[in-house]
Write a structure and sequence with these properties.
single chain, alpha+beta, L,D-transpeptidase catalytic domain-like, 2 domains
Length: 208
């Protein structure tokens, strides 16, 4: 009995190590942002914009209309295309901006998005999910280019962040595992790169 348990345990460990090694091989060819810029004959990024492609699990960096590079990304635990409340674990679809940058976060770095935007708020008001007062609070924050208030039923604090303490394991998984609260997660190394070029107001489009 004990021997069977040991065999099973060893098999699980070997399988897990094999997965990580395979993931390391898959990630070994990734270009740094500097290398990607050189490959595109660019010296810097002008008119930075980010496109998050949920269907392909990628976060893409563009300099104007020129694609620069992309990062492997994972999203909210709930795969629905409709984010409708603070706790539904869905990554929203739409046009947002980076409204806050936190360089000392649980998940390494956190680039907060302006979710919910005015469109999100208007649709929720129309179906009477939020009150007129909640809508106006979101509207005022939008006009002031501030992050939306957290107190509404739509919530906020959705953004792009790293993985944190378990970065080595999660970034080297050779398969997709959505685990966030609705935010977009990339590796710690990649969020470091991204945080070095974004600023408050950088546009982010999330598509499916």
């Amino acid at each position: 009995m004990l021997k069977n348990i040991l065999y099973i345990s060893a098999s699980i460990v070997i399988f897990f190590v094999g997965l990580i090694l395979y993931g390391l091989i898959l990630n070994s060819g990734e270009l740094s942002l500097e290398e990607a810029l050189r490959a595109k004959n660019l010296t810097s990024i002008e008119n930075l914009r980010l496109i998050v492609d949920r269907s392909n699990y990628r976060l893409q960096i563009y300099s104007g209309n020129t694609f620069v590079k992309s990062y492997k990304s994972v999203f909210g635990k709930n795969a629905s295309n409709l984010k409708s409340s603070a706790n539904d674990l869905v990554t929203p679809l739409g046009d947002y901006k980076i409204c806050s940058i936190d360089t000392n976060h649980k998940y390494h770095k956190f680039l907060q998005l302006s979710y919910p935007n005015e469109k999100d708020a208007a649709e929720s008001l129309k179906r009477s999910y939020i009150s007129q007062g909640e809508f106006e609070a979101i509207h005022i924050a939008f006009k002031k280019n501030e992050c939306p208030p957290k107190e509404t039923k739509l919530g906020s604090y959705i953004g792009i962040h790293g993985i944190g303490a378990y970065d080595f394991i999660f970034r080297n998984l050779p398969f997709t595992f959505n685990w966030t609260n609705g935010s977009i997660a990339i590796s710690n190394k990649n969020i470091d790169e991204l945080a070095s070029i974004v600023k408050i107001g950088t546009p982010v489009k999330i598509t499916y």
